[in-house]
Write a structure and sequence with these properties.
alpha+beta; 2 helices
């Protein structure tokens, strides 16, 4: 029998990687950034649940952070485009 926790972890990882691809597509080819995506507890009291934090670090080590107020599995290309 498979472990349901492992399945959830694999699904979460897949969605985080999907969001990273959306970010890289939005930034364009040739843009050098480290892209990090993680699930966080939403810092906004009006947010209904977990949120997705996107961190970008460029070659000059300048960091930008964005929060999308929905879990990674619900993040769309339009959400990413609205932020970046």
């Amino acid at each position: 029998m498979s472990d349901p926790g492992a399945l959830r972890t694999a699904r979460d990882l897949w969605h985080r990687q999907r969001v990273k691809r959306l970010v890289r597509d939005r930034l364009g080819r040739g843009t050098a950034h480290l892209v990090s995506v993680r699930g966080i507890e939403c810092p906004d009291p009006d947010c209904p649940g977990p949120a997705t934090e996107i961190r970008l670090v460029n070659l000059a080590l300048v960091e930008s952070r964005f929060v999308i107020h929905k879990p990674a599995e619900k993040v769309t290309a339009a959400d990413v485009s609205a932020l970046i």
